[in-house]
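Q: Structure tokens for this one, please.
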Amino acid sequence: MDIDPSKLTPMGQMNLKNYMEGKAVLEKLEEMTKDPMKYNTEVLMKILRDNKDTEYGRKYGFAEIDSIEEYQRRVPITMYDDYAGYIYRMTEEGKTDLITSYHVGHYAKSSGTMGNPKRIPVSDESVAVLDRYNQLARTAIQCNAMGLGWIEPPTINLIEAPMTTLKNGATYGAISGRIIMSLGEHLGLFMTSPQEALVPDVKTNTRYLHARFALMNGDVTMAVCSYISMTLEIMQYIEKEWRLLVKDIEKGTIDESIKMPDEVRRSLESKVRPMPERAAELRAIFEQGFDEPIMPKLWPKMVMIIGISTGGFADYLRRLKEKYAGDGFRYLFPGVTASEGLFTTPLAMDDFNAVVVPDSMFYEFIPVDTDDPADIVTMDKLEVGRSYEIVTTNFSGFYRYRMRDALKVTGMHNNTPMLEFQYRIDQSLNMTGEKTTEVALREALERTERKLGFDVIDFSAYPDASSDPLRYVYLLEPDHLPEGLTRDQIADELNRNLCETNPLYGYKFEKGLFGRLDVKYVQPETYLLYRDLAISKGTASSQLKPPHILGNEMQRRFFLALLEEDQ
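A: Here is the predicted structure, written as tokens:
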């Protein structure tokens, strides 16, 4: 469709510019996927050349390396602890040219909620890659599929990014916060959520703010989140609290029960006004009930939702579609991105596949079924259907860095593999060598839900070494349980399914090394409380992943303290 740029808002003009530049990015990507190793080797040589005079580069002789084989021979495989000392000197003493010659203006806070969070350096070169694919290429994909009718705001943005400043002046927080912080007061031009929700104080009820300000605007064209579970969570909140939300929209108030610091409340009260007409419209919609998908009624101009929905988030997408969204929206599923960089990018709307980006970083892969660094391969040696751990050499000072993420090769685009995130390698249940992954735990539960006709809000699992024989314990927060369905029935079916999703567990169960797993129910809103507590301790909501495997005693105590009383 023809659009007069002069008649667009500043955000519409930016989206149009991103579209025009994004088309060139996609064309270049298509070219690179035909000969990915050529471009990936060039990336490695550039990184080595640019960083040969750093302390790390001199230590391992970057100046003398002229091939992948020589690089692998000279430079060891690393973990975060190998860089912790360098990063301390960078952030606390302001030192430069230690592990990277590139300017590092931001450090990403690791998403883990256990122990001390990591500080992952993010160079300007890494940020440029993120912008190229997450902004430009993504906009081009959306426009190619849907035209330009959506490019005008507003957008429901559920990505929160609390941020602090380190001693050396660099920002510290989720990488997504870099974009939000740079927009400052202009956020209100194209996002429904106010800055108080996007860069929040930990004492602020951001769930209310996202829902309230999104409902105020009936012209929303899309919703954006890090993980699709965040959109589901907001819709569940709206279903529960719609009366309070509508009342506040009608009167232009913020209910006293909503928690936030006084200064935040004063700032927000200056941004709201009575909206009786919109409130009446919303009330009429909500009074019809939630038996039919309600999102198209609330936002009739909404055409798409963007958010990670693969791996552990697939079931959240299913529930969002069934309960709230229906079948009318298009979806863009971002590829695999971490604090260390962007690994894959989608090529089309409504497609879970994402292709490796050859010019983002240098890639190596360790097969997870061997877990032997001696078996490391480059991307041209990957096998479809097999799972690997990524080892990255990036633009931010990490060299042959083990990510501890398992990704499965789902196919090929031209000569370049497509990858899907599966699970964290260091997060599995492994009492006798059975290595039960999150994928196996989740698939067993989904099969059980379908067979017995029930739903859960979320789940966790942990090994019970005190039982005889050993056993697993599933913690479930039920959403719907058919009358008469017992925990023992669920446990029996769940155990049968787990024997199939992890045959090694099944073999050891048959041999008597494991007893039948146990199922316990946690109280309503347990997982919301877990999320809120993690955020109150400084974890960005955009980095929160479901705690499907309880990895430490602190997590286990939290959930066991919230069991239903009759267990």
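A few notes: The chain has three domains: 1-150+340-425, 151-157+174-302, 438-560. Residues 228-251 form the longest helix (24 residues).
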